[in-house]
Specification:
single chain, Serine Threonine Protein Phosphatase 5, Tetratricopeptide repeat, 2 domains, 8 helices
Length: 156
């Protein structure tokens, strides 16, 4: 019995240590934000941490603040779009993905994200348009060709 206990102990300690580390990180990010509420980097890091902890509503609030502080931050808009999609707020997610494209029209990933969302919303023609744009921007994106082919097949 001692061997079994010894075998499982490191896993338990590891999980406890990970939880403790995450709690410390959250505390430090929150302290940085308390000192400087406009610290976009601290808010972004806290948002990512909250996402990892499946605290999506809280993560979304942090990213709302990040884009308020830095409205031109395409990455923050993209992450906010993912969070809103996760929270099934599809119209808001679409707005964020479109904002990324407004900021950087040649961001193939942004067009991919929007295309996937539009496909999920059964707005297939719009999705096709986005994947055509991905291919225009990055003609070597094999995944975009595959997805576009499936979309066109399904539209027939």
């Amino acid at each position: 019995m001692i061997e079994t206990k010894a075998f499982f102990k490191p896993y338990g300690d590891s999980a406890a240590e990970e939880n403790e580390r995450l709690q410390k990180e959250e505390k430090e990010f929150r302290e940085a934000i308390r000192i400087n509420p406009n610290d976009a980097e601290a808010r972004s890091n806290l948002g990512i941490l909250l996402y990892k902890l499946a605290r999506y509503d809280e993560a979304e609030k942090e990213y709302e603040e990040v884009v308020r502080i830095n409205p031109g931050d395409a990455k923050a808009h993209s992450i906010l779009g993912f969070l809103l999609n996760r929270l099934t707020r599809y119209d808001d997610a679409e707005k964020e993905f479109r904002e990324v494209i407004r900021i950087n029209p040649n961001d193939a990933d942004a067009h991919t994200n929007l295309g996937i969302l539009l496909n999920d919303l059964k707005r297939y023609e719009e999705s096709v348009k986005e994947f055509r744009e991905v291919i225009r921007i990055d003609p070597n994106d094999a995944d975009a060709y595959t997805i576009l082919g499936k979309l066109l097949k399904d539209l027939k």
